């Protein structure tokens, strides 16, 4: 599975997660840093990426257009890049399940709050 990180996420996630999600990319590195959500959506669809974003607009695009592409919707609030990496790593099984699912196109990921 190739992940496409939206502009609201750090480009360093590509490198940090390359062992688990090789061939992933960040919109900035692809010249899409200023592109509309719809243009990013279309790029991801044409190039078999799963979009990773905090942006609810991608959920709306999924509702209107269906999938592909699939979407990892990060519902984790403001946090550091290390926390985002950990959320993605700790949900690897759920992400793999989404990739194989022919019915679901969006997976919302939440951060566990420390007790």
Task: Write structural notes for this entry.
The protein has helices at residues 12-16, 37-46, 57-65, 81-90, 92-100; strands spanning 2-5, 25-26, 49-53, 71-75, 106-110. The chain has 115 residues and is an alpha/beta fold. It has one domain (6-110). The longest helix is centred in the middle third of the chain and has 10 residues, at 37-46.
Number of helices: 5
- Tell me the strand percentage band: 15-25%
Please count the beta strands (DSSP E, at least 2 residues each).
5
Order of helices and strands, N to C? EHEHEHEHHE
Measured between the Cα atoms of the first and last residue, the distance is 33 Å
What is the radius of gyration?
Answer: 13 Å
The helical percent reads 25-40%
pLDDT below 50 for ≥5 consecutive residues: which ranges? none
Structural class given helices, strands, pairing? alpha/beta
| Nearest-integer average pLDDT | 95
Quick take:
This protein is of the alpha/beta class. The protein has one domain. It has helices at residues 12-16, 37-46, 57-65, 81-90, 92-100, and strands spanning 2-5, 25-26, 49-53, 71-75, 106-110.
